Amino acid sequence: MTTLGDKIKLERTKQGLSQDDLADRLSIHRSIVSRWETGKAEPTEDQLAKLADIFRISLEELTGQKQTEPSSNPVKEFDATILIYVLLLMVSFFVEPFGIIPSIILIIYAWKNKLSKWYIMIAVVVLLYHITNFISAFAFWMVPTKVIVE
Question: What is the model's pTM?
Fold first, then answer.
């Protein structure tokens, strides 16, 4: 049976995080993460909730136990990453025909925050839209105009 410390180490390495990285995200010292992983200490309930959020798993999966008391707030906590994604998407349309750069930033943001593949696909479609807009605008600028003088 795996211990909580083993599970923390497994999830941390799955995310590609060092002990320092995880400690920074939790605003604690690296030695505390090391103590958790070796079983010399255990995280508090708040820290467990933050760990589950960082690892994007449920608290039950992290601890290996069923939740005994239901959450007092049944509403899902607001996820700021989706809001930032939508704002970047909107910004990319406000800077036409140069929305290519915000679209690339959008793809990188979705990738780094491990958003669903659907978010990345939407961002790629938006990027393709901006590229075609840019090409058509560039082609329009390059068309020589005839000035008819009578």
Answer: 0.44
